[in-house]
Design brief:
Elements (H helix, E strand, L loop, with lengths): L1 H11 L15 E2 L8 E7 L3 H4 L3 H6 L10 E6 L4 E6 L4 E6 L4 E4 L9 E7 L4 E6 L2 E6 L2 E6 L8 E7 L4 E6 L4 E6 L4 E6 L11 E6 L5 E5 L4 E5 L5 E5 L12 E6 L5 E5 L4 E5 L5 E5 L12 E6 L4 E6 L4 E7 L2 H17 L6
Antiparallel strand pairs: 1-2, 2-25, 3-4, 4-5, 5-6, 7-8, 8-9, 9-10, 11-12, 12-13, 13-14, 15-16, 16-17, 17-18, 19-20, 20-21, 21-22, 23-24, 24-25
Length: 348
C-alpha cells in the first residue's frame, strides 16, 4: 500500500494542487464602503491550520493529529509564539505559525483547570491561572505559584504590569482583585465585593495599560471598571443592556498601546472596542460558526503589532484579527514607500 501511494505521488506529483491557506481578507469591520478598522487574518482549529496540507493529504485526504476542544486563555510573545490554554484537554499549547509547530507547555504540577494567560514580554514573565492557583513562568520554565495558601476561591483573570512588576489576579468566587509581586508576595487588595462603583461581583478578565491602570471585567455587575494601581476608581464603562456599548455577559478585556479597550461578550458573540471615556469605537463579530463569528468568545489579547487574538470556546478555535488604527495605516504606507524606493528601476 505504501509503495503504491508513493508511485501514485510520483506519477501525479505535478498534478498535486499547491496548498494555499484560506484568504480571510474580505472579512473586515466596519463593512465597505467604510474604511476597514479590523480584518480577520487567520483561524486555528486543528494542526492543519498551523502546518498546512501535505501533497499526500491533497490526494488521499487530510489527517488531523491535533484539535482544540475548549480553548480559553490566550496570549502571544514577541517571537511568534501563541500560548493557548484548553480547559477541555487540560493542556497549554504553544503555537508558532512561522515555524508551523504546536508544542505543549510543561507544568510539573499538572493542569487542573488552565485558564487565563497574561504575558510580560519585557521581563519574560508569563502568568497562567489553574483553578485556585496562578503559575508564574520565566519563558517556559515554572518558577513560582501563587495561591497555595488558599488566596483564591477560583482565579479568573490575570494581568502583568511590566513597568512595576506587579501581578493582578481576579477571584471570581471570592469577588476580589488582588495585587502580588512577581515572586508571589501579596501586596494589596484592589477591590472587593459589592454593586456600587468601585466594587465588583464575579470579576473575570483583567488588563493593565502603560500607565499602570487596571481594567476589571465586573461580570455580574455588567460593566468594566478601571482602577489606579492603589485601587482608586478611575472610571466605569458600560452597563447591563442589549445595545452596542452595553454588556450582557462580559468575559475578558485587553488594552492596546494606544489605550483602545477590547472586551469580549459571550451573549453578544462579539468583542467591542472602547476608548477610556467609554465611547464605543466598533464592535466585531456576531453569534455563529462562520469566519469572524463567535460562540462564547473567551479571552482576548492584543500584541505590539496590534494583532488581536480571541479564543472561540464552543466553536473550538482561535481567531486572529488585525486592528487597523491610524498608526497602523501610517506604518503600512511607510513600509510601502521604503519597498518602492528599494526596488531597482528595471523591476518597477
Amino acid at each position: 500500500m505504501v509503495t503504491t501511494a508513493i508511485a501514485v505521488l510520483a506519477l501525479l506529483g505535478c498534478a498535486v494542487p499547491e496548498y494555499r491557506p484560506p484568504d480571510y481578507s474580505r472579512y473586515v469591520w466596519p463593512s465597505p464602503p467604510q474604511k476597514p478598522r479590523v480584518q480577520l487574518l487567520h483561524i486555528i482549529a486543528t494542526d492543519l491550520d498551523v502546518r498546512g496540507r501535505t501533497a499526500a493529504e491533497a490526494l488521499f485526504g487530510e489527517e488531523v493529529s491535533f484539535a482544540f476542544y475548549h480553548p480559553k486563555g490566550i496570549a502571544a510573545d514577541k517571537v511568534g509564539n501563541i500560548f493557548v490554554s484548553d480547559v477541555g484537554l487540560r493542556r497549554v499549547f504553544i503555537i508558532n505559525l512561522q515555524q508551523k509547530s504546536i508544542k505543549e507547555l510543561f507544568n510539573p504540577y499538572g493542569w487542573t483547570l488552565p485558564g487565563a494567560i497574561a504575558m510580560d514580554t519585557q521581563n519574560n514573565v508569563m502568568a497562567i491561572t489553574n483553578g485556585g492557583r496562578v503559575h508564574l513562568f520565566r519563558g517556559t520554565k515554572l518558577y513560582a505559584t501563587v495561591g497555595q495558601r488558599g488566596e483564591f476561591r477560583r482565579a479568573g483573570g490575570v494581568a502583568l504590569d511590566a513597568q512595576r512588576k506587579i501581578l493582578y489576579v481576579s477571584d471570581v468566587r471570592g469577588h476580589t482583585v488582588k495585587a502580588f509581586s512577581y515572586d508571589g508576595k501579596f501586596l494589596r487588595t484592589i477591590t472587593t465585593s459589592g454593586a456600587e462603583p468601585g466594587k465588583v461581583f464575579a470579576p473575570t478578565g483583567l488588563a493593565v495599560d502603560r500607565q499602570g491602570r487596571v481594567y476589571v471585567v465586573d461580570s455580574l455587575n455588567f460593566r468594566l471598571q478601571v482602577f489606579n494601581p492603589d485601587g482608586t476608581l478611575v472610571t466605569t464603562i458600560g452597563g447591563h443592556g442589549t445595545a452596542p456599548g452595553s454588556f450582557a455577559r462580559p468575559k475578558f478585556v485587553a488594552v492596546n498601546q494606544d489605550g483602545m479597550i477590547l472586551v469580549t461578550d459571550a451573549a453578544f458573540g462579539n468583542f467591542q472596542i472602547f476608548d477610556l471615556q467609554g465611547r464605543l469605537y466598533l464592535f466585531v463579530g456576531s453569534p455563529g460558526r462562520g469566519p469572524g463569528m463567535f460562540n462564547i468568545p473567551e479571552q482576548i489579547s492584543v500584541d505590539d503589532e496590534d494583532r488581536i487574538y480571541v479564543t472561540d470556546y464552543v466553536n473550538r478555535r482561535v481567531q486572529i484579527f488585525q486592528l487597523m488604527t491610524d498608526r497602523w495605516y501610517a506604518q503600512q504606507e511607510a513600509k510601502r514607500k521604503t519597498q518602492e524606493q528599494a526596488t531597482p528601476p528595471a523591476q518597477k
